[in-house]
Amino acid sequence: MSPGLAAAQDDQVAEGRALVQMYCTDCHATELTGESPHATAPRFRDLHLRYDVEHLAEALVEGIVTAHPEMPQFEFDPDQAMAIIAYLKSLEPAQPAGQ
After folding, report:
1. pLDDT tens, N- to C-terminus, the chain (99 residues)
2. Domain extents for the chain?
3. Of 10, 41, 12, 9, residue with least CA distance to 25
């Protein structure tokens, strides 16, 4: 990977982290450690176990409609959605080489 591409990806991950810290940390654990403040809110580091993270981008842009009234509906622009996806992917465990 070129240094320029790596820097762009790092910037996107940082933007995604900033967005989830702004909008999501009241209820969700958004880092690699810790529990969610809201008992029913999934930890972001576990979202890849529940969903195909790539497919969440569409929901982030069109508006996440939730099954519980405590979570507000969010809509992000496509660049913000991709930044959030990049951040979520950064929380996934690294795959062993060759997989």
Report:
1. 555 555 668 899 999 999 999 999 999 999 999 999 998 889 999 988 888 888 888 888 887 776 567 778 888 999 999 999 999 999 988 776 665
2. 3-91
3. 41
Contact call for residues 30 and 20 (beta carbons, < 8 A)? yes
Sign, CA dihedral 45-91-51-68, equals positive
The label of the residue with tokens 């529940």 reads: 50
What CATH fold (topology level) applies to the domain 3-91?
Cytochrome Bc1 Complex; Chain D, domain 2 (1.10.760)
How far is Cα 82 from Cα 57, in angstroms, rounded to an integer?
A: 6
